[in-house]
Amino acid sequence: MSYSSLLVEIDSSGIAIVTINRPDKLNALNAEVIAELDDWFSKAASDPTVKGVILTGSGPKSFVAGADISRFKGLGAEEGQRFAAYGQQVFSKIEHLGKPVIAAVNGFALGGGSELALACHIRVASTNALFGQPEVNLGIIPGYGGTQRLPRVVGKGLATEIVLTGAMVNADRALAIGLVNHVFEPEGLMDGARKLMLLMVEKAPIAIKLTLEALQSSDLPLADGLRDEAALFGRACATEDFVEGVDAFLNKRKPEFKGR
Ligand code: COA
Fold first, then answer.
1. Is residue 115 annotated as part of the catalytic site, yes or no?
2. What residue spans of 96-221 are helical by DSSP H?
């Protein structure tokens, strides 16, 4: 599939920069963008040249300003449910990629844009970032995971305020409430995201994948999460990379992980 709304570059360290490229519409998510994200993330899961992904938006003003509102005219109950379910499926694919995904939020992250950033494992932002769930202004509710992932990241009280008021959250506030991990000047955003990703892509890939899987279980009751963690720890112990990591430490050398 060739992409008309996504730009993709993969560097020699295995970092893929995926840019949603509809700057004239503030990178709003139309059917094409969603389908292209679906296709790219499906393939990236098994692509050995991709070790981590940085997702961003084109232009200086916007990450993603939401679902494309022009798609909403005439949407009825059943079609609306299908619309939300498909977007959720694609965003879950991002969350379950098995490789780290950082959202580099370079401006508006509204509605589906905020939800897309929330489906990424880590969010970093530029000083001009503005997050929000303005769906209530349109008479709808967040449909791509906002009512589920936002409370898990910032807590239910703050999430309730954000989704019920539709008010925007600026970068400083997003940092204070843990919605983003770091804030950079706009010109330093991609470099900051890359430096953070480099720390992860040099690690043992299976350990990274299993750690991401274990973190998913942190939404479960503690006893279930601990059970999953022990099982995943056992799987990590069965890898060649574990043998290599321990041997490298004991022999005071840098490990050479093979992803096996
Ligand atoms: N869907 C479709 N088009 C969108 C869009 C969206 N979610 N967000 C922005 N655009 C389009 C605008 O219609 C405009 O297109 P045009 O030049 O053809 O008229 C273009 O992007 C630029 O947006 P504009 O509104 O002129 O920029 P602004 O700086 O004045 O305002 C926003 C920026 C983000 C505040 C404003 O565009 C907005 O409120 N967008 C909708 C956000 C939203 O509700 N998202 C959730 C949807 S569920």
1. yes
2. 112-119, 146-154, 156-165, 171-176, 189-201, 205-216
Q: What is the pLDDT along the chain (260 residues), one digit of tens a residue?
A: 889 999 999 999 999 999 999 999 999 999 999 999 999 999 999 999 999 999 999 999 999 999 999 999 999 999 999 999 999 999 999 999 999 999 999 999 999 999 999 999 999 999 999 999 999 999 999 999 999 999 999 999 999 999 999 999 999 999 999 999 999 999 999 999 999 999 999 999 999 999 999 999 999 999 999 999 999 999 999 999 999 999 999 999 999 999 99
Going by alpha carbons, the residue nearest to atom 22 of ligand 1 is 25
Contact 20, 27 (CB under 8 A): yes
202 among known catalytic residues: no
Q: Is 46 exposed, middle or buried (0-12, 13-18, 19+ CB in 10 A)?
A: exposed
The domain spans of the chain are 6-201, 205-250
Whether residue 22 contacts residue 33, with contact meaning beta carbons closer than 8 Å, is answered with: yes
The class that CATH gives domain 6-201 is alpha beta
Q: Which atom of ligand 1 is nearest to the CA of 72?
A: 48
pTM: 0.97
Backbone angles phi, psi at 182, to 5 degrees: -145, 150
